Amino acid sequence: MREALRGLTTRGRSFLAAAAAAGISALVLGERDLLRVAVLLAALPLLAAAYVGRSRYKLACTRSLEPGRAPVGSSARVILRLQNMSRLPTGTLLLEDKLPYALGSRPRVVLERLGAHQASSVAYTVRADVRGRYPIGPLVIRLTDPFGLCELTRSFPSIDRLTVIPQVFPLPTVRLGGEYAGTGDSRARSVAVHGEDDAATREYRRGDDLRRVHWRSTARTGELMVRREEQPWESRATVVLDTRVYAHRGEGPTASFEWAVSATASIAMHLRQAGYKLRLVTGSGIDIDAYDGGESLILDTLADVKLAQNGDIALLVEQVRRRSDGGLVVGLFGSLTVAEAELLTGLRSNGATCIGFAIDSSTWMPMTPGERQEADREHAAAALALVHAGWRSVPVTHGATLPNLWPAAARGSSGFAWRAAMAETVGGVIR
Predict the structure, then answer these.
(1) Mean pLDDT throughout 392-412?
(2) Running DSSP on this structure, what letter comes out for residue 12?
(3) Which of 172-186, 386-400, 414-428 has the lowest mean pLDDT?
(4) Buried b (16+ CB within 10 A) or exposed e, 380-406
(5) What's this model's pTM, rounded to 2 decimal places?
(6) 76, 162 in Cβ contact below 8 A?
(7) CA distance 137 to 149
(8) What are phi and psi of 79, to 5 degrees?
(9) According to the model, what pLDDT value does residue 293 have?
(10) Where are the beta strands (DSSP E) in 156-223?
(11) I need a surface site. Which of 65, 243, 258, 280 has the fewest CB within 10 A?
């Protein structure tokens, strides 16, 4: 009862205050009718508190998210199912689900009555424009009387999480080249087609299975030859995301880093669908392999990735080279200096094909004409150094879309083109 009295609403407390005032006035004026009014005013909130306080409902709640993983800018549907497990019908229930600020205001739903062993479902939608993992819950239920004089709060401890992943754009199919690598008795080499297990032949050795005899080679050489089964040639790709905080500009969903994260997700999904064995490396220490069914792992990882204060290109190169085995390397880089671009030469080992998206993050911020010319010159010089380092360089400026830039990854930008761009920028010829 004490808890119920503490749960009196403003309306209930006003009734008690009015009852006290009417009672004092009745005693002073000697008006019995006014005293009866005072008793009635006091009885209503007390009876409401007793009604709500003695209510012992057994309620069960389940929450489902559709979908549980939503892209940035899309909506997700939250479905609450509440079931009355007791034999008594409930009174009015006010449901309120706690949400983080990024998902919008807290939804409030009123259920007038829930009969014995009856269930009811309610739903609401949320929308997030910033990627991340957001807790939804706990659900708070407010029990109240029909007159709204007393209100008690109960909550369910369960919390669900909505994962908001980067937006993934479909990319056109282009031939990148140099992306196939394999292992086996012979050294890795590039081939032009996907294939079944590559078969070669060798001389028969004692103990070999006779079913592996290659009769055509045996007839040609005059010696018994058997098939030497090698591991299949496979497509391997490493996607590298630059997370240096000083290499990116802008804030919120329109920042250059968010463009890079979305591009990383799009490229990773495109390569996975093309049959690549994928590796994702970021400057913040993330290094994961995504094999069959690894799409969700990649997207969940990119939903949480943040800018790193202590990021460094040399450390990023070392991290990639630690388990490098050739194939294709696609890098999403923020603003680079010439020295940092030259460090990326280290990723050209094992005959890897390297494609770099050089993001000019300075275009994500306003500048004076003089500052813009200097920023353009520095970006062009770094991109030219990237080309000299053996990379296919694809320039990225504010407003560019990845599907339009992706075909350039197949051909890249030549050193001559970057020299011409620099010459136009500074108004002279660069040698």
Answers:
(1) 88
(2) H
(3) 414-428
(4) bbbbbbbbebebbbbbbbbebebeebb
(5) 0.74
(6) yes
(7) 27
(8) -115, 125
(9) 59
(10) 160-165, 180-181, 199-203
(11) 65
**Crossing angle of helices 256-273 and 295-304, rounded to 10°:** 170
- 421 closest CA partner among 26, 336, 413, 104: 413
Secondary structure E strands in 335-427: 353-359, 392-396
In the predicted structure, residue 223 carries a pLDDT above the cut 90:
no
DSSP H helices, 145-212, are none
What is the chain's alpha carbon radius of gyration, rounded to the nearest angstrom? 34
3-class SS at 216?
helix
- Paired strand residues for 64: 79
Which residue type, as a one-letter code, is found at position 225? M
Q: State how beta strands 234-241 and 180-181 pair.
A: antiparallel
CA-CA distance, 277 to 382, in Å (whole number)?
Answer: 30
The answer to whether the beta carbons of residues 72 and 130 sit under 8 Å apart is yes
Residue type, 383: A
Kindly report the CA angle at 274 between 268 and 275, in degrees rounded to 5? Answer: 95
Q: Pairing relation of β-strands 328-333 and 353-359? A: parallel
Distance CA 234, CA 193 (A): 9
Contact 108, 94 (CB under 8 A): yes
**Is the pLDDT assigned to residue 363 strictly greater than 80?**
yes
Q: Which long-range contacts (CB under 8 A, 24 or more apart) does 220-225 make?
A: 225/201
- Are the beta carbons of 172 and 196 closer than 8 angstroms? no
Locate 113 and state its tokens: 């009555």
DSSP-assigned beta bridge partners for residue 96: 108, 140
**Nearest CA among 124, 123, 130, 125 for reference residue 164:** 130
Task: Tell the residue number behind the tokens 């968010």, with chain if given.
Answer: 258
User: Other C-beta atoms within 10 Å of 340: how many?
Assistant: 22
Structure tokens belonging to residue 175: 């031939």
Q: How far apart are CA 150 and CA 336, in angstroms?
A: 63
